[in-house]
Amino acid sequence: MDIRIYPGRLSGTLSAISSKSDVHRALICAALSHNPCSIRCNVYSRDIEATVRCLNAAGAGIRYSEEEALLRVIPISGTKEGTAGIFCGESGSTLRFLLPVMSALKLRCDFSGAGKLPERPISLLTSLLREHGAVVTGDQLPLTTEGGLRNGSFLLPGNISSQYITGLLLAFPLLGGPSELQLTTELQSAAYVDMTLDTMQRFGVRIRREGNRFFYDGSTGYHAPELYEAEGDWSNAAFWLCGDRMGENQIRVSGLRSDSLQGDRAVKEILSGLFSGPPRDGERVIDASGIPDLVPILSALAAISPGVTRFIRAERLRLKESDRLAAVSGLLSALGADVAELPDGLLIHGKERLPGGVSVDGCNDHRIVMTAALLASACDAPVVITGAETVSKSYPAFFADLNQLGGKTDVI
Q1: Which residue has the higher pLDDT, 295 or 186?
Q2: Backbone angles phi and psi of 370, in degrees to 5
Q3: pLDDT tops 80 at residue 190
Q4: How far is CA 2 from CA 69, 350, 373, 384, 402, in A?
């Protein structure tokens, strides 16, 4: 789907969609529990659907009621015979969370994926699983797991992917004894690991953390609450919160927890601090190591804000659905911004306005498409976005919500 976005003022209040990160974790914990659970979730995106599909293939019974905004979960019980087809779609979270979990279950699984997911690195994780008894055939998709993961002491770098850490922690209660995870380098994206620990505790499993070491004593298993309320998503709300600072827009988002553990809650502080006026000391510097998903939309805001903005420690964005540093640089340049792509980030000289009036590639990346749409609304001329349907990966109602705020769009 290609879509044309016309310039115009956006105004109104939107309700935050449910946090994809929260729902992924809750679904897995619920499927591994000993009792049924309902998860309050007001959006059924492709990534959430991927986790549901994979857990159902492993023997869970999960269905979504759009009318009730509920995911009803019947846990995995017993050992499923045959081979489970674990098709992760394009969801990196689904793959990296479930590789350790399925390796801990007595279950043969064929993992596969779509888009760029088969190209995204997982060899460090598969090697670690093998070191601890798991049978894993292959180091990239498609691959097969046959269980066998044992409890013990695990070593992982903390600066590779928080998703590896989350997957291992989720698997610990399935391993039949105490386990320990020690990080050998600084933990990046720490907030996502904090979310995992919080969700597991809400499902009855306590992991003790001491600095870069995580301890599970083997004494508790998963026990689901009757109802789990997924919180609002700061990552997707950030598009609207940044959009509020573009032009004469007035956008508000309700349903966000100010005490959320989501790392992207930092957008509120960044907007009130770094983007409250011209940068001090010559330029704004944004360390993206803990907030990589905010880089596209913050870059768009930087492009039409006075002063210079530098994004650093963002190299992991090259391994997302697209090479997001290259994708953002290409998008902003096409719209008329002054941007330079760096090995680990971006350097942006802000302008008052951008001309627009071009067609831009959505790069099969939901965050690139949403960034393009918000920035296009603040350009001088209409902008066409190709491949706009990819927003369904995380936010299927994005364009409906844009129109609700007064956005003017045409599907081409």
Answers
A1: 295
A2: -65, -35
A3: yes
A4: 29, 28, 12, 7, 15
Residue 405 pLDDT greater than 90, yes or no: yes
Place of tokens 């044992």: 150
Same domain, 51 and 107: yes
Distance (Å) of CA 112 to CA 44, 91, 108, 115: 21, 11, 13, 11
DSSP 103: H
The reply to whether 255 and 153 lie within a common domain is no
The tokens for 408 are: 């003017």
pLDDT in tens, 128-169: 999 999 999 999 999 999 999 999 999 999 888 899 999 999
Query: Which of the residues 22, 47, 233, 293 is marked catalytic?
Result: 293
**Which amino acid is it at 160?**
I
Last residue of a domain, which of 176, 207, 229?
229
pLDDT digits (tens, 9 = 90+) for 82-101: 789 999 999 999 999 999 99
CB atoms under 10 Å from CB of 153, counted, come to 11
Q: Which residues contact 33 (CB under 8 A, 6 or more apart)?
A: 73, 75, 203, 204, 221, 222, 223, 224
Confidence of residue 79 (pLDDT cuts 50, 70, 90): low
Any idea which residue has 């209409």 for tokens?
382
| Mean pLDDT lowest among 75-84, 88-97, 204-213, 287-296 | 75-84
Tokens (6 digits) for 4: 């044309």
State pTM to two decimals.
0.94
Q: Can you tell me the distance from the alpha carbon of 356 to that of 380, in angstroms, rounded to the nearest whole number? A: 6
Query: Rounded CA gap, 29 and 25, in Å?
Result: 6
- Based on the residue annotation, tell me whether 293 is a catalytic residue of this protein: yes
Place of tokens 């997302």: 320
Helices of type H across 64-118: 92-104
> What is the number of structural domains in the chain?
2
Cβ neighbour number for residue 286 with a 10 Å cutoff: 23
Owning domain of residue 325: 3-17+232-411
In DSSP terms, 12 is beta-bridged to 251
> What does the alpha-carbon distance between residue 70 and residue 65 come to, in Å, rounded to a whole number?
5
Task: Dump pLDDT digits (tens) for 259-290.
Answer: 999 999 999 999 999 898 778 778 999 999 98
* 326 in the same domain as 270: yes
> What is the separation of C-alpha 385 from the centre of its chain, rounded to a whole number of angstroms?
22
The answer to whether 135 and 145 are in contact (CB under 8 A) is yes
Asked if the bond preceding 142 is cis, omega within 30° of 0, the reply is yes
pLDDT at 360: 97
DSSP state of 66: T
